């Protein structure tokens, strides 16, 4: 932070943008958006309440005190229900939702288009095609599938980028070509399903709908370690988003290497979306809904990364809770519920975009 050069009396006075608070830690200073900080705190509390409800509600009701005993490692008669069945599934849902929410925020920031979520522009479909192909060839380990999904997501993103590049990258062309590539990759996935054995194809169909059913610690651990390793990159991305939103002329004047910055953010978003897809399948529209809802809650110029991740986790946890109980004893894939909410929202975004263009 510095004063205004050449303005007497302002040299010692720091510049603080409206709505921000300066947080200092030794020689370092950080800007915190007050409304975004409050929103993140409220979302964290709501998410904690949703997690308690998730552990307590099911075929049998578990008292909150007993569920807490299991989480804290104390003796409880509900150890099997909470510790073995519900807790690992909850952890996978939290990680998958947070990864999708953060991925959507990063890619929408880079492309500057609210439609540019990983499941709309083909990244999730690329991850799905490779994962389903691996399943049909007998690869079922959750220690391997997320990384195969990352490879599929990166190949899909590279394909969309190369097809959309015309001496520059136009956001609308990138999204339209991404939608086309997504459709083509769904056909590849269908081809793998027709070539696989019947039982494997049925399992892959459930996975493709986006499901947490049957997810245990073997699915939670690889995803958790991968996201933990990405935390430094996410901390960098939260700061870099502000610069990535600059126009080319302003970024050049300020010495910001915009191309490298956007490439890094996009790569991180692709990896996050692909890891989440590998763990639970393509849970549609979470990466679309969470960033735009977070932006409206915080009223910030840039899409808030932390709030997007919290909202993504909240959507998946509540969606899976409803998917388990709405038609009990039948459990729906969580992707069915998120698609039921997200599809009308996508149509609304497209219609709103056309209306804006027609004015």
TrEMBL record:
<dbReference type="GO" id="GO:0033214">
    <property type="term" value="P:siderophore-iron import into cell"/>
</dbReference>
<feature type="transmembrane region" description="Helical">
    <location>
        <begin position="144"/>
        <end position="164"/>
    </location>
</feature>
<feature type="transmembrane region" description="Helical">
    <location>
        <begin position="219"/>
        <end position="240"/>
    </location>
</feature>
<dbReference type="Pfam" id="PF01032">
    <property type="entry name" value="FecCD"/>
</dbReference>
<keyword id="KW-0812">Transmembrane</keyword>
<feature type="transmembrane region" description="Helical">
    <location>
        <begin position="36"/>
        <end position="57"/>
    </location>
</feature>
<feature type="transmembrane region" description="Helical">
    <location>
        <begin position="301"/>
        <end position="322"/>
    </location>
</feature>
<keyword id="KW-1003">Cell membrane</keyword>
<dbReference type="GO" id="GO:0005886">
    <property type="term" value="C:plasma membrane"/>
</dbReference>
<dbReference type="GO" id="GO:0022857">
    <property type="term" value="F:transmembrane transporter activity"/>
</dbReference>
<keyword id="KW-1133">Transmembrane helix</keyword>
<dbReference type="InterPro" id="IPR000522">
    <property type="entry name" value="ABC_transptr_permease_BtuC"/>
</dbReference>
<protein>
    <submittedName>
        <fullName>Iron ABC transporter</fullName>
    </submittedName>
</protein>
<feature type="transmembrane region" description="Helical">
    <location>
        <begin position="334"/>
        <end position="351"/>
    </location>
</feature>
<feature type="transmembrane region" description="Helical">
    <location>
        <begin position="171"/>
        <end position="193"/>
    </location>
</feature>
<keyword id="KW-0813">Transport</keyword>
<feature type="transmembrane region" description="Helical">
    <location>
        <begin position="261"/>
        <end position="281"/>
    </location>
</feature>
<comment type="similarity">
    <text>Belongs to the binding-protein-dependent transport system permease family. FecCD subfamily.</text>
</comment>
<dbReference type="InterPro" id="IPR037294">
    <property type="entry name" value="ABC_BtuC-like"/>
</dbReference>
<keyword id="KW-0472">Membrane</keyword>
<feature type="transmembrane region" description="Helical">
    <location>
        <begin position="90"/>
        <end position="111"/>
    </location>
</feature>
